[in-house]
Amino acid sequence: MTTHFFTDTGVLTARSLRHVLRSPDTIITTAIQPIGFMLLFVYVLGGAIDTGPGSGPYVSYLLPGILVITIAAGIAYKPSPHIYAPLARRHGNACTTGSSRD
Question: In this predicted model, what pLDDT tens digit does every residue of 37-48 receive, in sequence order?
Answer without folding.
Answer: 888 888 887 777
